[in-house]
Specification:
There is one protein chain. The chain is an alpha+beta fold. The chain has a single domain, classed as Jelly Rolls (Sandwich), CATH 2.60.120. About 15% of the residues lie in helices and about 45% in strands. It contains 3 helices and 14 strands. A hairpin with a 2-residue loop joins β2 and β3. α2 packs antiparallel against α3. About 35% of the residues are buried.
Length: about 230
């Protein structure tokens, strides 16, 4: 896959287990190599959910990113002002490059009598500002069984499905394809009395981004990536 264009085929073939995940790993390494050597300036963004995001490519409604998860990363990110339970406005297909990522699907239930959370809509702009808007929806939720994905494995999450994502171990990285679904909304569960507010995503500088990209590359090429 040429990471300079959003090509769905390697992701689709990996999901169908036709070509495996090797093309996706190569695409991630090519992008990270360019960032680490300064051939391409892509600055990592500190996401409030506690990971670093390298926005590798964007084309219309689809984009490819490399996500880097590390213990303690949330300390350096913008403070999380809602719960970690969220739903994307886009379909996600993700390949784990190293480490292990755990997803827990969440069943959200309308509950006006004894709700535990309010649903917030998240509206993001290209400048990295997230506007969190409380909605009238009052809900409770139940968590499903954790689903772990290790290096070389693929996981998918459809738009609109509430979930949480966490680490199993010290660190992990993924390359993912996200494709927006018409009419979809980014949602999060927050406090019942939460007010509307804004969160600014912090951006790493070019030196930090290059150093992190190099570190991720070394980990991908390590003999034991799991």
């Amino acid at each position: 896959m040429d990471y300079r264009s959003v090509d769905h085929r390697p992701f689709e073939q990996a999901v169908d287990d036709r070509c495996g995940t090797a093309p996706l790993v190569r695409a991630a390494c090519a992008a990270l190599e360019d960032i680490a050597t300064g051939r391409r300036e892509v600055c990592a963004v500190r996401h409030p959910l506690g990971f670093l995001c390298f926005p590798v490519e964007r084309d219309g409604d689809c984009g490819v990113c490399v996500h880097v998860f590390r213990d303690g990363a949330r300390e350096a990110a913008a403070a999380l002002t809602t719960s970690p339970v969220h739903a994307h406005s886009w379909d996600l297909t993700s390949c784990v490059l190293y480490g292990q990522v755990v997803n827990v699907r969440v069943k959200v239930m309308e509950d006006q009598e004894r709700p535990t959370h309010r649903v917030f809509e998240i509206v993001s702009d290209p400048a990295g500002v997230d506007e969190l808007r409380p909605t009238p929806r009052l809900v409770g939720y139940e968590t499903g069984s954790p689903q772990a994905s290790a290096a070389g494995e693929i996981y998918t999450l459809p738009a609109g499905e509430f979930h949480t994502t966490m680490l199993s171990g010290g660190s992990a990285a993924t390359i993912l394809l996200g494709c927006s679904r018409p009419g979809g909304r980014d949602l999060s569960l927050g406090p019942l009395d939460g007010a509307g507010h804004r969160v600014v995503r912090q951006q790493c500088d070019a030196e930090q981004s290059a150093r992190t990209a190099g570190s991720v590359l070394r980990r991908i090429h390590a003999p034991h990536r799991r």
